[in-house]
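Researcher: Let's try something more involved. This one mixes different molecule types, so please make sure each is placed in the same coordinate frame as the others.
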Amino acid sequence: MSGMRAVCVVGLGLIGGSVLRAAVRAGRPAWGFTSSTSDSEAARAAGFDVRSTVDEAVGEAAAREALVVVAVPLPAVDEVLRTVASLAPSCLLTDVVSVKQPVAEAVARLVPGARYAGGHPMQGRSESGWVSGSETLFDGAAWVVVADEDTDLGPWREAAELALDCGAHVVPTTAGEHDAAVARVSHLPHVLAAVLAATGADGGPLALALAAGSFTDGTRVAGTRADLVLAMCEGNRPALLDAVDDALGRLGAARGALASTGGLAATIRAGNAGRAELMGLRSAERGEVRVDLTDPEAFDDLRSLGAGGGRVLRFDGTVAIADLPG
Amino acid sequence: MSGMRAVCVVGLGLIGGSVLRAAVRAGRPAWGFTSSTSDSEAARAAGFDVRSTVDEAVGEAAAREALVVVAVPLPAVDEVLRTVASLAPSCLLTDVVSVKQPVAEAVARLVPGARYAGGHPMQGRSESGWVSGSETLFDGAAWVVVADEDTDLGPWREAAELALDCGAHVVPTTAGEHDAAVARVSHLPHVLAAVLAATGADGGPLALALAAGSFTDGTRVAGTRADLVLAMCEGNRPALLDAVDDALGRLGAARGALASTGGLAATIRAGNAGRAELMGLRSAERGEVRVDLTDPEAFDDLRSLGAGGGRVLRFDGTVAIADLPG
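Model: All components are placed in one shared frame. Result:
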């Protein structure tokens, strides 16, 4: 039954547009809304059900007990939630916004009756908008579904089923741990790419003419639309500050070592080790883990799974089938 | 005639091994030497002429008036140059080492009679060794050939012809300007990739499990063999210090803005602009420029060309045919 849960996607940019396509691919009834005329026209031209107003889209979600997916940038979340509160106050609700604590706080404040579990598919591109999306965007990707102390199993599983239907695997964690992790592996990369792109361009046409793979790859995400990067990074301010401080500490230590002994070995070897951990995790043998969702400790088990690099691959009745490296 | 100049490549790793292959592809007589048994065996198995000793390789270069290409990491350059000084003291000499001032100083000190112009193909991979190379590695790449005040036209053109024969285009500049530029677009990217990889790995398995394209691309070159990165970065210490200081300044400013106003707009927009300059340079319309190499000001013209993002594409008699963006 939950496999056929209808889906209402609000926001049809790269991520929301890909969720709508992937939900339809999975056979779900699905419709959406976007305030962008160009995204709306493109989605309709491709044959998707795009409503004329957000009220119409959310109203139908209430009538059909659909899962509402908030897929707008963080600064636009409150406005969408106010519509949800007025038209579908107790709906099943998830989101695909790149930070989780601020969204959870907004939901608690604005739609306290919603049956909510936050989500975040870890997949993006430096392009944006409906036209950049695809029904396969999430195939093989990680998709966080927040399992906090106050998350209920019902909405958690609804959001997780959507993620699996979209081709992703589910990583359970808390909102706070999510935000700390993505500050390091998603937001800091954008800040460092911007710093690198600007410092390279300061070298003028000669430097840019000599730029090869290391600079091209290292600055790729600096080409992302600035408003999207700002919404994402500024929305995760405390966690990003910690990550930037760590990076500043490491870069300052490199600077000091280069100036004094001339040696960068500690910096470069730590980077080697970090990259090896990343590649090792991706190629690791993984053992199956089963989590009985009727167990009162189920969420503890799920959070431990996520903390260890594990992921939920499917459900079998009330059991989550997962795997874990090593 | 110069199209058939023989080539002797000392060092058969990724870059040297690719130069040997590309020189043979171009129809040149070419042989090499490497102190690595595995590289030597692999090159011989692929049918290339690899000599048993560096003396034999360099001795034959002297006998055949070959262009000697030094393709070992910076820390091994002096030893190779001592062999060149003893067996081929007035040979045509170039190198493909990633910094140019230290090599130029070593050549002036150890082989003052060499007819030398330094070179640097701006192409690499995070893999290393003979097996990672290919005859097409330099196709379409930039290849710096140093045109300093004391460079002679003869060896400059010999090194440039080799670069063109290898499929690259030639960027003329001074050793100092080269070193400053690559500090920004080649060495700083390695330092920042290392900082990012280590800071991300500090987030544990959860963070690495959530890493997507921005972290994967941003840390790719952190997988390069540490000794190669260290030789490259530590060999360009003064210029890299300047680049690291600029990056520290920009990252510190981002930190301050995030902590005070919460805004990262200046950082992210500067990164956007830098990336746009890079992509703009690559897609720019380019106009043809001809430099008459018999003109006493030819090297000034070539250096101006390089400073403006220009490149030499071929020679027509004593004229260098080049293009320049805009």
